[in-house]
């Protein structure tokens, strides 16, 4: 199931995206929660009721192109990112192969809704793209064993970890290069975990810049699986419903190309992960 948040007269509503249409959850199941995190924690038969309501043919959806989609999670409590999780990307960056997941955090002002415009900063011309699988946590946990980790996953989404490379490489800490305002779009939907293979493994993952494929990888190539990532992070901090974890990017990023290719105003960057709606964003100047 593809779950979305969308705008209705200035207020956020929840919907199911299916066959190019958005169906209002409040109309499908009137007693359903109206908040995405509450929806993740819903018990009982809610999701089967949603499926049955759509399958009945009585519901009428809105064409998705007429709907303004919002960030699937409005303000995630934690936005945790993983670096160096695909071997070929590690090699193209001249890094050592890590023994443990390399973690950093994203702040709220760096994030964007699925149709938001990525802002190229005035202080740098090295705005890079990174296609990433995003994990959506649906169940709280601390010190989660790896064999139980996938029980804490509600679903998955797409993320573009827009990176300002010269700022990223100023120090050994990546926070500066990864947190410029309006550089990290995610969405457009949360794909529930039951709609994808366990751990979202074996999915093609691509980035396209102005229609040209830049990155072309597969989530099966992640050195640290979704389960391992969750287990490791939960040793450090309690994971809570609505927390998001970006799982790293495959090779083919702009800075490693010869000559380098960076995003600029007017560009269209698309992130495509198998089994998910495409995340597409324009780039503008600050």
TrEMBL record:
Keywords: Metal-binding. It holds the Pfam family FAA_hydrolase. The keyword Cytoplasm does not apply. Gene3D superfamilies: Fumarylacetoacetase-like, C-terminal domain (3.90.850.10). Residues 78-284 form the Fumarylacetoacetase-like C-terminal domain. InterPro entries: FAH, Fumarylacetoacetase-like_C, Fumarylacetoacetase_C_sf. Belongs to the FAH family. This is 2-keto-4-pentenoate hydratase/2-oxohepta-3-ene-1,7-dioic acid hydratase in catechol pathway.
